[in-house]
Specification:
This protein is of the alpha+beta class. It has one domain. It contains six helices and twelve strands. Strands 7-8-9-10-11-1-2-3-4-5-6-12 form a twelve-stranded mixed sheet, with helices on both faces. Helix 1 crosses helix 3. The longest helix is centred in the middle third of the chain and has 19 residues. The N and C termini lie close together (11 Å). The N terminus is likely disordered.
Length: 249
């Protein structure tokens, strides 16, 4: 999987409101009909659960409060192990990555460190377009049904794209963070994201999001099972967790 896939993936200091939301995501390469990755993200109260269907990985996120960092717990269901990563580590790693990219000769890498887009939003159609010489996003959206949920959704998406960057050794997440900011500004939820990178050797990517503002009984069962696994699985270091996963690919 290309490192810049994170630029497409999933779309606050005080306690956030409780959100109940389900987002199914399917990723495609260009116009190809085959799914290249899929996931289901469940917002349940102040905790978010992300199920990566094609990798057997579950990611659980709880935001930090009162100055404490947020925390990700990653579960490897095949090896029955877990590891934890806090948001302070992500902040430090992303800043180092941004500084590195800003000093590179490649204009695209420098852009990812300090991205700037021309933005248009058509309220009638719900289409958000963000263009630059390097990347173009065309995003089909719908209005958020619960405006009070928007800060929590954006918070998770911001941290999640940084986690994905860390795990996949990806490019700086600045472009996707700009997209998240634009969606929040327009009180919009992404239904489809089309990403074109303006290089001859790169394939465009497309993500489809099925959004449901309600959790099913099956969703709640998956959450309960994940909490049981979090208690049962052996805890390992970040390095052991990631090295073993990479060896299986």
């Amino acid at each position: 999987m290309r490192p810049w896939l994170a630029l497409l993936c999933l779309a606050v200091a005080s306690p956030l409101c409780a959100v109940e939301l389900r987002i199914e995501t399917r990723m495609y390469a260009g116009d190809e009909p085959d799914v290249i990755s899929s996931s289901t993200t469940l917002f349940a109260g102040d905790v978010v659960y992300d199920f990566r269907e094609d990798e057997g990985r579950v990611t659980i996120f709880r935001a930090g409060h009162a100055g404490a960092p947020g925390r990700f717990v990653l579960l490897d269901t095949a090896r029955r192990v877990r590891t934890e990563i806090d948001t302070d580590r992500l902040t430090g790693a992303m800043e180092k990555l941004r500084q590195w990219a800003a000093t590179q000769k490649d204009p695209f890498l420098r852009f990812t460190a300090e991205p700037h887009f021309e933005e248009t939003f058509d309220r009638e159609t719900g289409v958000l377009t963000m263009t630059s010489p390097h990347l173009t996003y065309r995003i089909t959206t719908e209005p958020a049904k619960d405006a009070s949920a928007e800060p929590q959704i954006k918070q998770f998406l911001d941290w999640f794209v940084q986690l994905h960057t860390l795990l996949e050794a990806g490019l700086p997440p600045g472009p996707r963070l700009e997209v998240n900011e634009a969606l929040m500004r327009h009180s919009a939820i992404a239904l489809e994201v089309q990403l074109a990178q303006h290089r001859d050797d790169e394939t465009s990517l497309r993500a489809e999001h099925l959004v449901t503002w309600l959790l099913s009984k099956q969703d709640r069962n998956r959450i309960d099972e994940s909490l049981d696994k979090m208690a049962e699985f052996r805890e390992v270091s970040n390095v052991e967790f990631q090295t073993a996963r990479q060896a299986l690919r």
